[in-house]
Each structure stands twice: as C-alpha cells, then as structure tokens.
Design brief:
Elements lengths: L23 H26 L2 E5 L5 H15 L12 H8 L6 H7 L1 E5 L2 H20 L2 H8 E6 L3 H32 L23 H17 L17 E3 L7 H23 L6 E12 L7 E4 L5 E6 L4 E3 L2 E4 L6 E4 L5 E6 L4 E3 L2 E15 L21 H26 L16 H21 L3 E4 L6 H22 L18 E3 L5 E4 L1 H5 L10
Parallel strand pairs: 3-14
Antiparallel strand pairs: 1-2, 3-11, 4-5, 5-13, 6-12, 7-11, 7-13, 8-13, 9-10, 9-12, 15-16
Helix pairs in contact: 1-5, 2-4, 7-8, 9-12, 10-11
Length: about 550
C-alpha cells in the first residue's frame, strides 16, 4: 500500500450522514479542468477573437526585389540543348500558366498577420492569473472546510465515562508525585517555609532581586503547589495565553494501555471522519496536543475566553452531561454573529482551528471534554515519512495554506528573538548571512498573507454548522465504523502491511508538542516535551 492509495473515497458511515459532503476527488479534478479551460479561453480564444487582421507590405526590401528579378530571369531562359530563338511547348506552357509566388514574392506583395493591442493582451493575461487564484478559492475544496462546524458521534456514553476515569486516575498519580516532591523540597530547603506566599500559596517571583538559583527553586515549588491546589493533580498552567485546567495524554501519567485504547478508537472513528469531511489523507493527521479539560462552576476554571487554536484542525468531545451551562460559541468576525453549539455526550465538534471561539461558562457541576489540536503534515516532521497528503489539501487550499503562513510568521519571530538574545542585536536589523526564515521582510510577508487570507475566508466562506448523524443512529454508526476498521486490519495483515503514516494511520501521541516552520519541518519541541522527552518513546506510547 503506497501513500497514493491512502485516501479512501468510500466512507463506511456514508449512509448515516444527514448532509451531502463534498466529493473532494471530483472537486479537485474539476479545479484542474477549469484552470485548463481558463488558459484556453484567456490566452488563446479571446486574444484571437479580439485581434485584427493586418496586411503588411514589404516593397522597400531591396534584397527581396533583386531575388525576385533573378527568379524571373531564370524562368525565361531556354532549357539546355535547345536552339536559341526556337520556342518549345514547355516554354509556351510556362508563359501561359500563372507562376506561383515564392515566399519572397509574398513578402513583397503583402503578409497577412493578426495583431492585438497591448492593453487587451495584458488584460487577458491578468484575467487568467486572477482565475488561477479564484477557481480553487471558490471551490468547495476550499470553502467547505474553512468555516463549517461539524458534529458527529465518536464515543459511546460508557466510553466517555471511561475517559473521565482515566483522567481522574492520572490526576491522582500527579497529586501523589507532587506530595512526595513537596515533602522532599521542604526537607532539603526548610527556608521555603518562611518565604512569603500569595493567596494561591505560590511564592511571588522577582526576577530583578532574586538569584537565578532561588528563582529555579521557587518555580519548582510553585509548580508542585499548583498541582496540589484543587482540583488536585490537574495542570493549571500548561497553555500560557489561554490556560485551561487539563491533563495531557502523554506528559501526564496516563498508562500505555489508556493511550492504546484511545488511539484504536480515534483510528477507527475520527480519522476516517476527518478524511471524508475535509479531504485530508488519514496519514497526514498528527495530533500536536490531546488533553482532557475540566470546567468547574464552583472552583477552578468555569469558562475560556475568545481565542483561536494553534493548529490546522481542532476538536472537542463532550464526555459528560452532569452540569449546567457550558457549550462552545463560535464567532463570525465579519458581522459579529455567533453560533452556539451544545453537543451530546460522545459527540465530537470539528472545526478549522482559526475560527474565533470561546468556552461558555459552566454554571453548575463539572464539565469534561476531550480536546485535540491536529496538524496536517505532508511528511512526518520527526521521521520524514511521506503521509500521502494532496497538494489540494495543503498549498493549493487557502484555508490550510493560511495556517502554514501563520506558522512561518511565528517561527520567524521566535528565530529573531533568539538571535536578538544571542548577539544583543535589534529585531529590526537583518544580516545578509542570516537564515532567510528570520528575515524581517519574509516574516512580514507571512504575517500579511495570514491576515489577508483570514479576512478573505471570513468574508466568502459560509459560516455554518451541521450535525452529521442523528441521535438515534449514533450506536449503529459507531458499530459500522468499528467493523470497517476490523476489516481493514485483517486485509492489511494478510497483505503484510505494517502500521505507519504512509499506509494511512494518524499520529495521535508520538508527534505531539513540536514547533514547525512554514514548510512543515521540525524546528524545536515545546518546553513541556523537552522536560518529559522519555515519555514520547515508542515503548511508553
């Protein structure tokens, strides 16, 4: 099985869908045909249609005149062996028959040509260039994924409860480890007991007066203290700008069995859905972060303010319904309208990651959701393995290319800040010998492309939501998806096909928490992954 065969046009749950999803294979062929048609129309047909017929006289050509005179003289001479003065029948025929004009005679008599004005020529060329951009932009291949919110069942209610139990067990392990670490810190550094703390029990950090050694100690103490605050064992500071109370499936102590159980269900149910709904090869899907979030009405975090996610696709899956409030609100940047979505337990909510959204407040009880930030890779950034991703799902698709430019801009800024720290230079300065990715003009270009493409998509892509499967068919739909995966595994086992991204399997855990450049190449790992790199080894996943 090659990367080219990993896009499955047949979707096991097609009969249960309530809407007609785009046929991406057909859409992409249609884009190619339209571009070829545009080329023929604007560069061949219309220029010929609007051209004028011009006859050019070349009577001033002395060389052409002399050449014609020599031809006439030669044609009037008698044939060899004939007596001078006696005319043959051939000579008579030559005089009576009209002579065919040579090419030089044609130039003298006039040449027919077709001309088109430079204004018209430039206009048609501009129309062709614009059509090359407009045709893929206004296709369903681009507009449907850009601003369409999709709901579909992925887990049963019992499976959702199992995920919550997995999270509670991981939190318990975290809190036990934190208790042991806190005891060890206070034993080794009893002076911590006399240090002033804030209302959260954290030691305030003063970077100007505190020594680097004490800063590291205080940071470690605060991290342990955060885990011991209610709810115990749950991380409260993983995401810097939009922190959530959560647990990551890799860096937090979920077991290998937990990840295997979850990965099997995501392979069978989520990966085929993403492939069918967005036209993305299954092997191209890589989770950059998967975590369980809790929103508490009385303690901790009840909601999450407006934001976008750092990914291509994002999903959240409701795990329980023993709460009031909640839901996700998606905002339209153009007319400031919004769509509130309240999924059922086990339903996943899929969307383009750069749609502005917020987690609405939980007013009673605790709301649990499984959240994922998914990247779309042309190649695996860690191994270089091909994923079989079509160009129409990357650079030739505005809604995905826009995120590439965003990543290029962010990568450039990080590089420039690093260079600034290393050499004490200014962010505005550029060295000719420096990496082009940190050049200020390149980063500025990426930023502008990201901004303008986002505005275009906000303006033209329909902002809508769709529920793909009715509630009464949830269990049947999930069973059909599972059977299809079992059949696939049996077929691949018989063929000797191993599991890899090239053979159509998504990466849910191993490729998490890394930064990429504009071309999807590895740049560096998140700080959280760097600290816990041993948890990303094959034997622990």
């Amino acid at each position: 099985m090659t990367p080219q065969t990993t896009y499955y046009s047949w979707f096991p749950g097609e009969e249960y869908l309530t809407i007609t999803l785009p046929n991406y294979d057909w859409e992409r062929r249609l884009i190619i045909c339209k571009i070829i048609g545009s080329l023929i129309l604007f560069l061949l047909v219309l220029p010929m249609w609007f051209s004028t017929k011009v006859v050019t006289n070349s009577t001033t050509s002395t060389d052409a005149k002399k050449a014609t005179e020599r031809n006439n003289v030669n044609s009037s001479e008698t044939l060899p062996g004939k007596r001078r003065g006696k005319k043959s029948n051939t000579d008579k025929y030559r005089k009576s028959a009209p002579s065919k004009p040579t090419s030089q005679q044609s130039e003298i008599n006039g040449v027919v040509a077709y001309e088109i004005s430079s204004i018209a020529s430039n206009f048609f060329s501009l129309c062709f260039v614009l059509s090359v951009f407009a045709i893929p932009f206004f296709s369903e291949n681009n507009l449907f994924p850009a601003r369409t919110l999709l709901r579909a069942p992925v887990f049963t209610r019992e499976e959702c409860q199992h995920i919550i139990d997995m999270a509670h067990d991981a939190a318990l392990r975290n809190s036990q480890e934190a208790e042991e670490e806190r005891t060890l810190l206070l034993t080794e550094h009893p002076e911590l007991l006399s240090v002033e703390v804030d209302s959260q029990g954290n030691i305030p950090l003063n970077y100007t007066t505190t020594t680097s050694e004490n800063l590291q100690l205080y940071q470690k103490f605060n991290k342990v203290n955060s885990l011991l605050r209610s709810p115990k064992g749950w991380k409260k500071d993983r995401h810097t700008h939009y922190p959530t109370t959560d647990l990551n499936l890799v860096t937090d102590p979920f077991t290998a069995e937990d990840k295997e159980w979850l990965g099997q269900r995501l392979d069978a149910r989520l990966a085929p859905l993403v492939e069918r709904a967005y036209g993305i090869a299954r092997g191209a899907i890589r989770a950059n972060d998967i975590f369980v979030v809790r929103y508490d009405a009385n303690e901790g975090q009840p909601n999450l303010r407006k934001h976008t996610d750092s990914a291509h696709l994002s999903f959240n899956l409701l795990l329980n319904d023993e709460f009031e409030g909640g839901g996700t609100r998606f905002h339209n940047r153009i007319d400031e309208s919004y769509i509130d979505i309240f999924p059922e337990v086990g339903e996943i909510l899929l969307s383009h990651a750069h749609i502005l959204h917020e987690g609405m407040a939980t007013t009673k009880g605790t709301r649990y959701i499984l959240v994922g930030f998914d990247q779309i890779d042309e190649k695996d950034p860690l191994t270089g393995e091909s994923t079989g991703l079509s160009l129409f799902a990357s650079w030739l698709n505005f809604c995905w290319a826009q995120i590439r430019f965003r990543e290029g801009w962010e990568d450039g800024l990080k590089r420039r800040r690093k260079r600034n720290r290393n050499d004490g230079g200014s962010l505005g300065g550029d060295n000719i010998e420096s990496d082009w990715r940190e050049n200020r003009y390149v980063t500025s270009l990426f930023s502008d492309l990201d901004s303008y493409m986002t505005k275009f998509l906000d303006r033209f892509a329909p902002f809508r939501s769709a529920r793909l499967v009715k509630s009464e068919f949830h269990d049947e739909y999930i069973a059909v998806m599972d059977r299809a995966m079992e059949q696939r595994k049996q077929m691949e086992e018989a063929m000797g096909v191993s599991r890899s991204r090239a053979t159509g399997y998504s990466s849910w855990f191993k490729g998490q928490q890394i930064h990429l450049d504009v071309f999807g190449s590895y740049v560096k790992s998140w700080r959280e992954r760097t600290i816990a790199e041993d948890k990303f080894k094959d034997e622990t996943l």
